[in-house]
Automatic annotation (TrEMBL):
This is DNA-binding NarL/FixJ family response regulator. Residues 192-257 form the HTH luxR-type domain. Keywords: DNA-binding, Phosphoprotein, Transcription, Transcription regulation. It comes from Streptomyces iranensis. CDD domains: LuxR_C_like, REC_NarL-like.
């Protein structure tokens, strides 16, 4: 029940978004599946991530439709673009980053509620993020995502997860399912941490990596940002939390089980 409509790069730069109207760009090596599987069924997918280089890598891994059965029909780099592209293309699955400009993955889910609720052609979301923090996992699952996998996943496993989510299954990276089970087993809402709420999603991400002992260069590589940007985020976190150094940041994060 899919068509052969792909997408074309409408704009350039990190915010480039692909919209319906032309065949997808060339795919690179990688991916999974077989020719028979691809011919039997295709899943139309939109990629939502604010790092163009990461989107390109995912496209190369999974986007060779004849081989994987996955057809990438659109891309977006922020919340507004995501909602526009998802509404225009009506994919079966959206690969959604948790941390996005404009409100994050949770905001994309909120604004896509009617698409998820469509009985005939539901749009299903699979979170794909570098973060494995419980608060991020629980947040997007409560928002309506069908699963959550980290960016360490292989191309083969990602294709499998996409197909499973398209069929209505719930898919999680190892150990993340426990966060969801624990959260939904309790009837008590988690307490609001006012200090943590002062931080942006990106600042929280940097904070967790700092607390885990990552050097600035390692954080920059992990998050696809510059070392200078990492330093700016750390300075902002220290200022907002009224802390003096990364050692105090580590203790603060450990006390809140963010590590």
């Amino acid at each position: 029940m899919t068509d052969a409509t792909g997408g074309t790069n409408a704009t350039s730069g990190p915010g480039a978004q692909r919209v319906p109207g032309a065949a997808p760009g060339p795919a690179g090596a990688g991916g999974s599946g077989s020719d028979d599987a691809g011919a039997a069924r295709r899943v139309r997918v939109v990629l939502v991530d604010d790092h163009r280089m990461f989107r390109t890598g995912v496209q190369a891994e999974i986007g060779e439709t004849a081989r994987t059965g996955v057809e990438v029909v659109g891309e977006a780099a922020d919340v507004d673009q995501a909602v526009t592209v998802i509404t225009a293309t009506r994919p079966e699955v959206v690969l959604l980053d948790v941390h996005l400009p404009g409100g994050g993955g949770v905001e994309v889910l909120r604004r896509s509620a009617s698409l998820m609720a469509d009985q005939d052609r539901p749009v299903r979301f699979l979170a794909l993020s570098v973060s494995d923090a419980a608060e991020d996992v629980i947040g997007v699952i409560r928002g309506g995502a069908r699963g959550y996998v980290t960016k360490t996943i292989t191309g083969t496993d990602l294709v499998d997860a996409i197909f499973r989510v398209s069929e209505g299954d719930a898919v999680f990276s190892p150990r993340l399912a426990g966060f969801v089970l624990d959260a939904f087993a309790s009837t008590d809402a988690p307490p609001v941490d006012e200090d943590l709420d002062r931080l942006t999603q990106r600042e929280r991400e940097v904070l967790r990596l700092i607390a885990r002992g990552y050097a600035y260069k390692e954080i920059a590589k992990q998050l696809f940002i510059s070392v200078k940007t990492v330093e700016s985020h750390v300075s902002a976190v220290l200022r907002k939390l009224q802390l003096s150094n990364r050692h105090e940041l580590t203790r603060w994060a450990t006390a809140r089980r963010l590590v």
